[in-house]
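Hi U.,

Before I forget, here's the chain from the pilot set. I'm dumping it here mostly so it's searchable later in email.
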Amino acid sequence: MKDRWNFVAALIVGVATMSFAAGNASKLSEKARPNVLLILVDDLKPSFRAYGDTWVHSPNLDRLTDRGMRFDMAYCNQAVCAPSRNNLMTGSRSTSLGIYSLGTNFRKAEPDAVTLMQHFMKHGWRTEGIGKVFHIGHGNVNDEASWSVPFHPDNVIDYVLPESTDGGQLTREEAYFSNQKLGENHTLPRGAAWEKADVNDDAYADGRIAKEGIKRLQQAKGREQPFFLVLGFTKPHLPFCAPKKYWDLYDPAKLPQPKVTKPPEGAPAYAGKTLGELNQYKPVPQNPPLTDGLTRTLIHGYYASLSYMDAQVGRVMDELDRLGLSENTIVVLWGDHGYHLGDHGTWTKHTNYEQANRIPLVFIAPGVTQPKSATKAMAETVDIYPTLAELAGLPAPTGPQSIDGKSLVPVLNDPSKSVKDHAYHAFPRGVRGTEILGRAVRTARYRMVEWKEIDAPVSTAKYELYDYQTDPLETENLAGKKPEVLAKMKEILARHPEANSAEDRPRVASRR
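Structure:
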Protein backbone atom coordinates (compact mmCIF):
# COMPACT_ATOMS: atom_id res chain seq x y z
CA MET A 1 0.00 0.00 0.00
CA LYS A 2 2.82 2.33 0.91
CA ASP A 3 4.44 1.67 -2.46
CA ARG A 4 1.15 2.43 -4.21
CA TRP A 5 0.78 5.77 -2.39
CA ASN A 6 4.38 6.60 -3.19
CA PHE A 7 3.63 5.85 -6.84
CA VAL A 8 0.47 8.01 -6.81
CA ALA A 9 2.29 10.82 -5.05
CA ALA A 10 5.10 10.63 -7.55
CA LEU A 11 2.57 10.64 -10.39
CA ILE A 12 0.85 13.73 -8.99
CA VAL A 13 4.16 15.50 -8.57
CA GLY A 14 5.20 14.46 -12.07
CA VAL A 15 1.98 15.77 -13.63
CA ALA A 16 2.30 18.99 -11.68
CA THR A 17 5.90 19.33 -12.74
CA MET A 18 5.03 18.72 -16.38
CA SER A 19 2.19 21.26 -16.12
CA PHE A 20 4.52 23.81 -14.56
CA ALA A 21 7.16 23.09 -17.21
CA ALA A 22 4.58 23.41 -19.97
CA GLY A 23 3.48 26.75 -18.57
CA ASN A 24 7.04 27.98 -18.48
CA ALA A 25 7.68 26.62 -21.97
CA SER A 26 4.64 28.53 -23.21
CA LYS A 27 5.97 31.72 -21.68
CA LEU A 28 9.43 30.94 -23.05
CA SER A 29 7.94 30.29 -26.45
CA GLU A 30 6.35 33.72 -26.43
CA LYS A 31 9.63 35.30 -25.38
CA ALA A 32 11.55 33.08 -27.78
CA ARG A 33 9.99 34.73 -30.82
CA PRO A 34 11.59 38.14 -30.72
CA ASN A 35 12.29 40.09 -33.86
CA VAL A 36 15.90 40.43 -34.97
CA LEU A 37 17.43 43.51 -36.56
CA LEU A 38 20.95 42.72 -37.75
CA ILE A 39 22.89 45.83 -38.81
CA LEU A 40 26.00 45.12 -40.88
CA VAL A 41 28.45 47.91 -41.69
CA ASP A 42 31.12 47.59 -44.36
CA ASP A 43 34.69 48.52 -43.32
CA LEU A 44 33.61 49.93 -39.93
CA LYS A 45 36.43 49.82 -37.40
CA PRO A 46 35.71 50.38 -33.68
CA SER A 47 36.60 54.04 -34.06
CA PHE A 48 33.65 56.09 -32.92
CA ARG A 49 32.69 57.86 -29.72
CA ALA A 50 31.20 54.81 -27.97
CA TYR A 51 34.55 53.06 -28.43
CA GLY A 52 36.54 55.97 -27.03
CA ASP A 53 37.27 58.11 -30.10
CA THR A 54 35.41 61.11 -28.73
CA TRP A 55 36.24 63.37 -31.68
CA VAL A 56 34.15 61.23 -34.08
CA HIS A 57 30.64 62.50 -34.84
CA SER A 58 28.62 59.31 -34.25
CA PRO A 59 25.58 60.18 -32.12
CA ASN A 60 23.41 57.35 -33.44
CA LEU A 61 25.97 54.58 -33.17
CA ASP A 62 26.68 55.84 -29.67
CA ARG A 63 22.99 55.88 -28.78
CA LEU A 64 22.57 52.36 -30.13
CA THR A 65 25.61 51.15 -28.19
CA ASP A 66 24.31 52.73 -24.97
CA ARG A 67 21.19 50.57 -25.18
CA GLY A 68 23.05 47.28 -24.88
CA MET A 69 26.42 45.58 -24.45
CA ARG A 70 29.59 46.69 -26.21
CA PHE A 71 32.27 44.09 -26.92
CA ASP A 72 35.71 45.67 -26.64
CA MET A 73 37.66 42.55 -27.72
CA ALA A 74 35.68 41.36 -30.74
CA TYR A 75 37.46 40.14 -33.87
CA CYS A 76 36.59 39.11 -37.39
CA ASN A 77 37.77 35.74 -38.71
CA GLN A 78 39.21 37.16 -41.92
CA ALA A 79 39.76 40.81 -42.77
CA VAL A 80 38.07 41.00 -46.16
CA CYS A 81 34.42 41.41 -47.10
CA ALA A 82 33.14 38.17 -48.64
CA PRO A 83 34.90 35.66 -46.36
CA SER A 84 33.96 37.67 -43.26
CA ARG A 85 30.30 37.62 -44.29
CA ASN A 86 30.57 33.89 -44.94
CA ASN A 87 31.86 33.52 -41.38
CA LEU A 88 28.89 35.46 -40.02
CA MET A 89 26.21 33.71 -42.03
CA THR A 90 27.47 30.14 -41.73
CA GLY A 91 29.12 30.22 -38.30
CA SER A 92 32.20 28.68 -39.96
CA ARG A 93 35.66 30.20 -40.01
CA SER A 94 37.39 30.67 -43.36
CA THR A 95 39.81 27.91 -42.41
CA SER A 96 36.88 25.49 -42.03
CA LEU A 97 35.14 26.50 -45.25
CA GLY A 98 38.44 26.68 -47.11
CA ILE A 99 37.36 29.87 -48.89
CA TYR A 100 39.54 32.96 -48.62
CA SER A 101 38.73 34.98 -51.76
CA LEU A 102 35.98 37.38 -52.79
CA GLY A 103 34.87 35.52 -55.89
CA THR A 104 34.15 32.03 -54.52
CA ASN A 105 30.67 31.43 -53.14
CA PHE A 106 30.50 29.64 -49.78
CA ARG A 107 28.20 26.97 -51.24
CA LYS A 108 31.08 25.70 -53.34
CA ALA A 109 32.50 24.38 -50.09
CA GLU A 110 29.23 23.63 -48.30
CA PRO A 111 26.36 23.24 -50.82
CA ASP A 112 23.86 22.32 -48.09
CA ALA A 113 24.98 24.81 -45.48
CA VAL A 114 22.19 26.19 -43.29
CA THR A 115 22.79 29.90 -42.96
CA LEU A 116 21.84 32.03 -39.98
CA MET A 117 18.75 33.28 -41.81
CA GLN A 118 17.74 29.79 -42.94
CA HIS A 119 17.96 28.59 -39.34
CA PHE A 120 15.44 31.26 -38.33
CA MET A 121 13.26 30.61 -41.39
CA LYS A 122 12.98 26.94 -40.43
CA HIS A 123 11.50 28.03 -37.09
CA GLY A 124 8.96 30.50 -38.42
CA TRP A 125 10.76 33.82 -38.89
CA ARG A 126 10.36 35.97 -41.99
CA THR A 127 13.85 36.81 -43.25
CA GLU A 128 14.52 39.92 -45.31
CA GLY A 129 17.75 41.49 -46.55
CA ILE A 130 18.61 44.95 -47.88
CA GLY A 131 21.89 46.46 -49.07
CA LYS A 132 25.23 44.68 -48.74
CA VAL A 133 24.71 41.44 -46.83
CA PHE A 134 26.38 38.64 -48.77
CA HIS A 135 29.20 39.89 -50.99
CA ILE A 136 27.82 40.36 -54.50
CA GLY A 137 30.56 41.05 -57.03
CA HIS A 138 33.95 39.76 -58.19
CA GLY A 139 32.01 36.79 -59.58
CA ASN A 140 30.19 36.08 -56.32
CA VAL A 141 26.41 36.15 -55.94
CA ASN A 142 23.65 36.49 -53.36
CA ASP A 143 22.27 33.46 -51.51
CA GLU A 144 18.60 33.32 -52.46
CA ALA A 145 17.95 30.38 -50.12
CA SER A 146 18.49 32.66 -47.12
CA TRP A 147 15.51 34.92 -47.77
CA SER A 148 11.76 34.58 -47.31
CA VAL A 149 11.23 37.31 -49.90
CA PRO A 150 13.51 38.48 -52.73
CA PHE A 151 16.66 40.21 -51.56
CA HIS A 152 16.83 44.00 -52.08
CA PRO A 153 20.34 45.03 -53.24
CA ASP A 154 21.85 48.48 -53.71
CA ASN A 155 25.12 49.88 -55.00
CA VAL A 156 28.36 49.52 -53.07
CA ILE A 157 30.17 51.86 -55.48
CA ASP A 158 27.89 54.86 -55.87
CA TYR A 159 28.60 58.25 -57.49
CA VAL A 160 26.43 61.25 -58.31
CA LEU A 161 28.97 63.64 -59.90
CA PRO A 162 29.90 63.05 -63.59
CA GLU A 163 33.53 64.05 -63.01
CA SER A 164 33.91 61.13 -60.59
CA THR A 165 33.42 58.64 -63.42
CA ASP A 166 35.04 60.49 -66.32
CA GLY A 167 31.67 61.63 -67.58
CA GLY A 168 29.54 58.65 -66.64
CA GLN A 169 31.74 55.77 -67.72
CA LEU A 170 31.67 52.38 -66.01
CA THR A 171 34.58 52.47 -63.58
CA ARG A 172 36.88 49.68 -62.49
CA GLU A 173 35.38 49.08 -59.04
CA GLU A 174 31.79 49.60 -60.20
CA ALA A 175 32.37 46.74 -62.64
CA TYR A 176 33.90 44.50 -59.97
CA PHE A 177 30.99 45.05 -57.57
CA SER A 178 28.31 44.49 -60.23
CA ASN A 179 29.88 41.44 -61.92
CA GLN A 180 30.49 43.29 -65.18
CA LYS A 181 33.49 42.91 -67.50
CA LEU A 182 35.23 40.58 -65.09
CA GLY A 183 38.70 39.91 -66.45
CA GLU A 184 38.65 43.22 -68.31
CA ASN A 185 38.38 45.50 -65.29
CA HIS A 186 41.95 46.73 -65.54
CA THR A 187 41.06 48.35 -68.88
CA LEU A 188 38.36 50.54 -67.30
CA PRO A 189 38.89 54.02 -65.85
CA ARG A 190 39.38 54.48 -62.13
CA GLY A 191 36.56 56.20 -60.27
CA ALA A 192 37.12 58.95 -57.73
CA ALA A 193 38.28 57.97 -54.25
CA TRP A 194 35.83 60.44 -52.71
CA GLU A 195 32.92 62.74 -53.43
CA LYS A 196 31.63 65.80 -51.55
CA ALA A 197 28.33 66.38 -53.32
CA ASP A 198 25.75 68.82 -51.94
CA VAL A 199 22.90 66.29 -52.09
CA ASN A 200 20.37 64.76 -49.74
CA ASP A 201 21.02 61.51 -47.90
CA ASP A 202 18.98 59.32 -50.24
CA ALA A 203 21.19 60.27 -53.19
CA TYR A 204 23.62 57.58 -52.03
CA ALA A 205 22.97 53.92 -51.28
CA ASP A 206 22.96 54.04 -47.48
CA GLY A 207 20.14 56.57 -47.46
CA ARG A 208 18.07 54.33 -49.72
CA ILE A 209 18.92 51.26 -47.64
CA ALA A 210 17.66 53.05 -44.52
CA LYS A 211 14.51 54.15 -46.35
CA GLU A 212 13.74 50.60 -47.48
CA GLY A 213 14.52 49.28 -44.01
CA ILE A 214 12.03 51.71 -42.50
CA LYS A 215 9.43 50.54 -45.01
CA ARG A 216 9.99 46.90 -44.03
CA LEU A 217 9.65 47.74 -40.33
CA GLN A 218 6.35 49.48 -41.02
CA GLN A 219 5.08 46.47 -42.93
CA ALA A 220 6.20 44.14 -40.14
CA LYS A 221 4.27 46.08 -37.50
CA GLY A 222 0.97 44.52 -38.55
CA ARG A 223 2.21 40.93 -38.75
CA GLU A 224 2.20 38.25 -36.07
CA GLN A 225 5.15 36.51 -37.71
CA PRO A 226 8.46 37.66 -36.21
CA PHE A 227 10.95 39.25 -38.57
CA PHE A 228 14.66 38.80 -39.08
CA LEU A 229 15.72 41.92 -40.97
CA VAL A 230 19.31 42.36 -42.16
CA LEU A 231 20.42 45.84 -43.22
CA GLY A 232 23.83 46.02 -44.90
CA PHE A 233 25.16 49.58 -44.93
CA THR A 234 28.00 50.23 -47.36
CA LYS A 235 29.86 53.17 -45.82
CA PRO A 236 32.59 53.80 -44.86
CA HIS A 237 33.70 51.45 -47.68
CA LEU A 238 35.53 53.15 -50.54
CA PRO A 239 34.85 55.37 -52.39
CA PHE A 240 34.32 57.89 -49.60
CA CYS A 241 31.17 59.42 -51.08
CA ALA A 242 28.98 61.30 -48.62
CA PRO A 243 26.84 64.44 -48.71
CA LYS A 244 28.87 67.56 -48.12
CA LYS A 245 27.25 68.28 -44.74
CA TYR A 246 29.01 65.22 -43.27
CA TRP A 247 32.40 66.36 -44.53
CA ASP A 248 31.68 69.70 -42.89
CA LEU A 249 31.47 68.03 -39.46
CA TYR A 250 35.27 67.72 -39.37
CA ASP A 251 38.23 70.05 -39.54
CA PRO A 252 40.78 68.06 -41.57
CA ALA A 253 43.65 69.86 -39.86
CA LYS A 254 42.56 68.35 -36.53
CA LEU A 255 42.05 64.76 -37.65
CA PRO A 256 44.50 62.28 -36.07
CA GLN A 257 47.18 60.95 -38.41
CA PRO A 258 48.87 57.53 -38.29
CA LYS A 259 51.45 57.32 -35.51
CA VAL A 260 53.48 54.46 -36.98
CA THR A 261 53.88 54.39 -40.75
CA LYS A 262 56.39 51.55 -41.10
CA PRO A 263 55.86 47.77 -40.95
CA PRO A 264 56.71 46.10 -37.63
CA GLU A 265 60.42 45.56 -37.17
CA GLY A 266 61.30 41.93 -37.85
CA ALA A 267 57.99 41.04 -39.51
CA PRO A 268 58.00 39.03 -42.74
CA ALA A 269 57.78 41.39 -45.71
CA TYR A 270 54.67 39.61 -46.99
CA ALA A 271 52.73 40.08 -43.74
CA GLY A 272 51.68 43.63 -44.61
CA LYS A 273 50.49 45.54 -47.64
CA THR A 274 50.44 49.13 -48.86
CA LEU A 275 47.91 50.63 -51.29
CA GLY A 276 46.11 47.56 -52.68
CA GLU A 277 42.39 48.40 -53.18
CA LEU A 278 42.98 52.09 -52.48
CA ASN A 279 44.96 52.48 -55.71
CA GLN A 280 41.96 51.37 -57.76
CA TYR A 281 40.67 54.93 -57.30
CA LYS A 282 41.93 58.25 -58.61
CA PRO A 283 43.98 60.32 -57.74
CA VAL A 284 45.75 57.70 -55.62
CA PRO A 285 49.16 56.71 -57.06
CA GLN A 286 49.81 53.07 -57.88
CA ASN A 287 52.63 52.86 -55.34
CA PRO A 288 53.46 54.65 -52.08
CA PRO A 289 54.13 57.10 -50.67
CA LEU A 290 51.03 59.27 -50.38
CA THR A 291 51.38 62.98 -49.84
CA ASP A 292 50.42 64.36 -46.47
CA GLY A 293 47.53 66.20 -48.10
CA LEU A 294 46.16 63.06 -49.75
CA THR A 295 46.51 61.10 -46.50
CA ARG A 296 44.56 63.78 -44.64
CA THR A 297 41.82 63.90 -47.28
CA LEU A 298 41.38 60.12 -47.25
CA ILE A 299 41.11 60.03 -43.46
CA HIS A 300 38.64 62.91 -43.66
CA GLY A 301 36.63 60.94 -46.23
CA TYR A 302 36.53 57.82 -44.07
CA TYR A 303 35.03 59.67 -41.11
CA ALA A 304 32.68 61.77 -43.24
CA SER A 305 31.36 58.50 -44.68
CA LEU A 306 31.11 56.99 -41.21
CA SER A 307 29.04 59.95 -40.00
CA TYR A 308 26.78 59.69 -43.05
CA MET A 309 26.15 56.01 -42.31
CA ASP A 310 25.61 56.88 -38.63
CA ALA A 311 22.73 59.17 -39.58
CA GLN A 312 21.07 56.37 -41.57
CA VAL A 313 21.34 53.96 -38.65
CA GLY A 314 19.67 56.65 -36.55
CA ARG A 315 16.74 56.88 -38.97
CA VAL A 316 16.13 53.14 -38.70
CA MET A 317 16.42 53.02 -34.91
CA ASP A 318 14.07 55.99 -34.55
CA GLU A 319 11.44 54.17 -36.60
CA LEU A 320 11.92 50.96 -34.61
CA ASP A 321 11.13 52.99 -31.49
CA ARG A 322 8.25 54.92 -33.04
CA LEU A 323 6.56 51.69 -34.09
CA GLY A 324 6.89 50.24 -30.59
CA LEU A 325 9.00 47.33 -31.84
CA SER A 326 12.07 47.94 -29.69
CA GLU A 327 10.80 46.05 -26.65
CA ASN A 328 10.69 42.76 -28.57
CA THR A 329 13.56 43.21 -31.03
CA ILE A 330 17.12 41.97 -30.65
CA VAL A 331 19.47 44.42 -32.34
CA VAL A 332 23.04 43.55 -33.34
CA LEU A 333 25.58 46.00 -34.74
CA TRP A 334 28.54 44.34 -36.52
CA GLY A 335 31.44 45.62 -38.57
CA ASP A 336 32.71 43.05 -41.07
CA HIS A 337 36.37 43.85 -40.28
CA GLY A 338 38.58 46.71 -39.20
CA TYR A 339 40.46 49.21 -41.35
CA HIS A 340 43.95 50.60 -41.80
CA LEU A 341 44.24 54.35 -42.30
CA GLY A 342 47.94 54.54 -43.04
CA ASP A 343 49.26 52.79 -39.94
CA HIS A 344 52.21 50.52 -40.86
CA GLY A 345 52.02 52.24 -44.27
CA THR A 346 48.91 50.11 -44.87
CA TRP A 347 45.48 51.13 -46.19
CA THR A 348 42.09 49.38 -46.03
CA LYS A 349 42.18 45.77 -44.69
CA HIS A 350 43.73 42.43 -45.82
CA THR A 351 46.20 41.86 -42.95
CA ASN A 352 46.41 39.94 -39.69
CA TYR A 353 47.15 43.09 -37.69
CA GLU A 354 44.97 44.65 -34.99
CA GLN A 355 43.61 47.53 -37.05
CA ALA A 356 42.28 45.16 -39.72
CA ASN A 357 40.82 42.50 -37.42
CA ARG A 358 39.33 44.19 -34.36
CA ILE A 359 35.66 44.99 -34.97
CA PRO A 360 32.76 46.77 -33.30
CA LEU A 361 30.15 44.37 -31.93
CA VAL A 362 27.07 45.42 -29.96
CA PHE A 363 24.12 43.34 -28.72
CA ILE A 364 20.82 44.79 -27.55
CA ALA A 365 18.75 41.92 -26.16
CA PRO A 366 15.66 43.09 -24.22
CA GLY A 367 15.50 41.44 -20.82
CA VAL A 368 19.06 40.14 -21.12
CA THR A 369 21.59 42.89 -21.77
CA GLN A 370 21.95 45.89 -19.50
CA PRO A 371 22.12 49.38 -21.01
CA LYS A 372 25.59 50.94 -21.22
CA SER A 373 27.29 47.66 -20.40
CA ALA A 374 30.65 46.60 -21.82
CA THR A 375 32.81 43.52 -21.72
CA LYS A 376 36.40 42.57 -22.43
CA ALA A 377 35.41 38.97 -23.15
CA MET A 378 36.92 37.66 -26.37
CA ALA A 379 34.42 37.32 -29.21
CA GLU A 380 34.55 36.35 -32.88
CA THR A 381 32.24 36.89 -35.84
CA VAL A 382 31.36 33.17 -35.86
CA ASP A 383 29.89 33.53 -32.36
CA ILE A 384 26.98 35.67 -33.56
CA TYR A 385 25.06 32.80 -35.18
CA PRO A 386 24.82 30.56 -32.07
CA THR A 387 24.26 33.59 -29.84
CA LEU A 388 21.23 34.77 -31.79
CA ALA A 389 19.84 31.24 -31.91
CA GLU A 390 20.02 30.93 -28.13
CA LEU A 391 18.60 34.41 -27.51
CA ALA A 392 15.61 33.56 -29.71
CA GLY A 393 15.04 30.20 -28.01
CA LEU A 394 16.00 28.21 -31.10
CA PRO A 395 17.98 24.95 -31.10
CA ALA A 396 21.72 25.44 -31.38
CA PRO A 397 22.82 25.32 -35.03
CA THR A 398 24.33 22.02 -36.13
CA GLY A 399 25.33 22.61 -39.73
CA PRO A 400 25.96 20.47 -41.85
CA GLN A 401 28.80 23.01 -42.05
CA SER A 402 31.24 23.28 -39.17
CA ILE A 403 29.77 25.54 -36.46
CA ASP A 404 32.90 27.12 -35.03
CA GLY A 405 31.31 29.79 -32.85
CA LYS A 406 30.18 29.70 -29.23
CA SER A 407 27.12 31.38 -27.81
CA LEU A 408 27.93 34.65 -26.06
CA VAL A 409 24.74 34.56 -23.97
CA PRO A 410 26.67 33.87 -20.73
CA VAL A 411 28.59 37.07 -21.38
CA LEU A 412 25.42 39.01 -22.25
CA ASN A 413 24.03 37.93 -18.88
CA ASP A 414 27.23 38.80 -17.04
CA PRO A 415 29.92 40.93 -18.74
CA SER A 416 32.57 39.62 -16.33
CA LYS A 417 32.22 36.10 -17.77
CA SER A 418 33.96 34.69 -20.84
CA VAL A 419 33.35 31.74 -23.14
CA LYS A 420 36.80 31.57 -24.77
CA ASP A 421 40.38 32.54 -24.06
CA HIS A 422 41.33 33.69 -27.57
CA ALA A 423 40.10 34.75 -30.98
CA TYR A 424 41.22 33.08 -34.21
CA HIS A 425 41.56 34.57 -37.68
CA ALA A 426 43.50 34.10 -40.91
CA PHE A 427 44.64 35.78 -44.11
CA PRO A 428 46.47 34.39 -47.17
CA ARG A 429 49.41 35.82 -49.08
CA GLY A 430 51.03 34.98 -52.39
CA VAL A 431 54.79 34.57 -52.00
CA ARG A 432 56.88 33.81 -55.10
CA GLY A 433 54.00 32.04 -56.81
CA THR A 434 52.97 30.06 -53.74
CA GLU A 435 50.06 30.81 -51.44
CA ILE A 436 50.85 30.76 -47.77
CA LEU A 437 48.31 31.23 -45.02
CA GLY A 438 48.74 33.34 -41.92
CA ARG A 439 46.72 31.79 -39.09
CA ALA A 440 46.49 33.99 -36.02
CA VAL A 441 45.44 33.64 -32.41
CA ARG A 442 44.72 36.74 -30.34
CA THR A 443 44.58 36.53 -26.54
CA ALA A 444 43.90 39.38 -24.14
CA ARG A 445 47.58 40.35 -24.33
CA TYR A 446 49.24 38.75 -27.36
CA ARG A 447 48.76 37.90 -31.01
CA MET A 448 50.73 35.20 -32.81
CA VAL A 449 50.63 34.62 -36.56
CA GLU A 450 51.87 31.38 -38.11
CA TRP A 451 52.76 31.67 -41.82
CA LYS A 452 53.05 28.51 -43.92
CA GLU A 453 51.48 26.64 -46.80
CA ILE A 454 48.34 24.67 -45.98
CA ASP A 455 49.30 21.10 -44.94
CA ALA A 456 53.01 21.97 -44.90
CA PRO A 457 55.02 20.83 -41.85
CA VAL A 458 55.04 23.21 -38.90
CA SER A 459 58.82 23.20 -39.20
CA THR A 460 58.46 25.35 -42.34
CA ALA A 461 56.47 28.08 -40.57
CA LYS A 462 57.53 31.61 -39.80
CA TYR A 463 56.02 33.50 -36.87
CA GLU A 464 54.98 36.92 -35.72
CA LEU A 465 54.32 37.76 -32.06
CA TYR A 466 53.04 41.05 -30.65
CA ASP A 467 52.58 42.17 -27.06
CA TYR A 468 49.68 44.65 -26.83
CA GLN A 469 50.45 45.50 -23.22
CA THR A 470 53.93 46.84 -23.98
CA ASP A 471 53.60 47.57 -27.71
CA PRO A 472 49.99 48.36 -28.68
CA LEU A 473 51.05 49.81 -32.05
CA GLU A 474 52.81 46.59 -33.13
CA THR A 475 56.19 48.17 -33.78
CA GLU A 476 58.25 44.99 -33.27
CA ASN A 477 57.84 41.29 -33.98
CA LEU A 478 58.82 39.58 -30.71
CA ALA A 479 58.72 35.97 -31.94
CA GLY A 480 62.49 35.63 -31.53
CA LYS A 481 62.63 37.42 -28.20
CA LYS A 482 59.85 35.71 -26.22
CA PRO A 483 60.23 31.95 -26.88
CA GLU A 484 58.18 30.92 -23.84
CA VAL A 485 55.24 33.10 -24.87
CA LEU A 486 55.56 31.90 -28.46
CA ALA A 487 55.46 28.28 -27.29
CA LYS A 488 52.24 28.89 -25.34
CA MET A 489 50.64 30.62 -28.30
CA LYS A 490 51.61 27.69 -30.53
CA GLU A 491 49.82 25.40 -28.08
CA ILE A 492 46.67 27.48 -28.47
CA LEU A 493 46.90 27.37 -32.25
CA ALA A 494 47.41 23.60 -32.11
CA ARG A 495 43.86 23.26 -30.72
CA HIS A 496 42.61 24.24 -34.17
CA PRO A 497 42.65 21.80 -37.08
CA GLU A 498 44.77 22.48 -40.13
CA ALA A 499 43.16 24.90 -42.56
CA ASN A 500 41.09 23.66 -45.50
CA SER A 501 41.15 24.80 -49.12
CA ALA A 502 37.98 24.48 -51.20
CA GLU A 503 38.99 26.78 -54.04
CA ASP A 504 39.87 25.63 -57.55
CA ARG A 505 43.48 26.74 -57.26
CA PRO A 506 45.61 28.49 -54.68
CA ARG A 507 44.97 32.18 -54.94
CA VAL A 508 45.25 35.29 -52.84
CA ALA A 509 42.14 37.02 -51.55
CA SER A 510 41.45 39.99 -53.79
CA ARG A 511 42.58 43.27 -52.34
CA ARG A 512 39.35 45.09 -53.07
